[in-house]
């Protein structure tokens, strides 16, 4: 049994005391920052990313990063339930019924249901990742430059399809991200490009600086727009354990949510968000009491939360096997891998099995830690919600500055933080979502390299992308996605979904 | 005919994309373009830059004569104090050293909110500095000079 051997390798890697410790710190820090209102999972990870580089070992640092991710997601659900302020769009659905449950004095139960649902979904989808990752890796190993190029096109196009608002804007954001990504020295000729003569940017713009700027700083600025008092609903969360009746009512939604989430999470471009929405509408449809939805339905918390977490987990599949990020968080993971000297892609599984399976095993361990730790600690997280925002952001800015500077000891990275903070904020104000930009930024150099290599291999014949069957198939998928998004009926439906959300 | 009107949000957005496209296009032209077979360093970015300009143009066309939503409040004060904070840290961390630099960085950022009182800001920055020095400098052992060469040497601990 290869699967069992691999999982055993993974668990023995992930459960060394040091790695367990890093996972624990990651989960705690992730929840700590993620629970701060208005700061979503992506921003949390961007801010904490530099800390993980202080660990020398890439396995430990990626395990910690994964821990931060789960923690941040759970933290986001906590704020969604307690103060109706989802940090991320994927927990926006949880806020609908979770907040209503909290208002009815059932905050504890809502939080516990979210945690239990997430844990179940996490367990199932971790197993799915372990089952599906190796065969996909085997396929990916057959890929040449043309296939990689086409695959990245699929990824970028799907990220556009799932972005909010105008499709043209999202497309422009991708292109801008690609351009920003290729700032630095050209790998073939060594010519410096777009560095404005600044030697410090010869290695390209620092990925951490871009992520912290576009997500972290821009988010702080947005929160500073109108500082109104947050009303924290509950000072004390009691009645944590769901009743027997609650359990009965949450079981089926959790299972359905897990299935929906696992399937949709693999989609590039934000499967977790879609999964949460899909699960909510499915639950509403199959429910015998649809009128309860929006007024504190248990299924409305259990389903989307499970879907959300399952989707978050399975989005690791394209990242681990193909080196293609499915969402901004995976883009951050890939950026972290590159900084650690690991080339993301199908070779990771064969060349670094301990890393590959260690991350998969740590997913489950991270989920377990979340449920063991966070249920008792909910009281503490609730207290954090009462810290005024103006106290928080000087702290965040200071830590971001230290963190970004410590990656390369390069002051120019800090100037890039300010620039990208401004750019990210301006673009958000102009209703352009930053996620496609970050995906473009990560994929820019890879896309160019594979394009140039494919063209050299085919002796300058661009039809190589269409004559190679896998590449042609992938490009067809990309085209189909674009066509579907522009179809009038889909366009309308898409707008409805995003309107509902905001 | 209706008077000329433009949706301000999308107009600005288009202008921004066209500006970036033009910047990258002009810069690409000074690089070797090459051919489709052997692409030079300027080939791919030039193509992307032209696409970006075109997308900007599409957004611009869409913006004309469409009533848009207003941009909404802008965090001017936030930008004025938040954005300089990392720049200040970058400029001074070597010269002043880690301790004064991070203290002042936090202090600058603290004033981004109208609700912050000067005394609170001082106490917060001081506490933050103490914590950062303990965690980042002593515990994690980041190679920061705690007090830099711009300060009199008797301060260097």
Textual characterization of the structure:
- Chain A: This is Tripartite tricarboxylate transporter permease.
- Chain B: Pfam families: TctB.
- The complex is a heterodimer of chains A (502) and B (157).
- Chain A has helices at residues 2-14, 17-34, 41-52, 58-83, 92-103, 107-140, 145-161, 167-181, 207-223, 244-265, 271-286, 299-314, 316-322, 328-339, 347-351, 353-384, 389-408, 411-429, 434-457, 464-467, 469-486, 488-501, and strands at 184-185, 192-193.
- Chain A is mainly alpha-helical.
- Chain A has one domain (2-146, 207-425).
- In chain A, a hairpin with a 6-residue loop joins strand 1 (184-185) and strand 2 (192-193).
- In chain A, helix 17 crosses helix 18 (411-429).
- Chain A starts with a helix and ends with a helix.
- The model of chain A has no long low-confidence stretch (mean pLDDT 81).
- Chain B folds into two domains: 8-63; 76-155, no CATH class.
- In chain B, 60% of the residues lie in helices and 0% in strands.
- Chain B is built from six helices and no strands.
- The longest helix of chain B is centred in the N-terminal third of the chain and has 22 residues, at 8-29.
- With 157 residues, chain B is mainly alpha-helical.
- At the A-B interface, helix 8, helix 9, helix 17, helix 18 and helix 19 of A face helix 1, helix 2, helix 3, helix 4 and helix 5 of B.
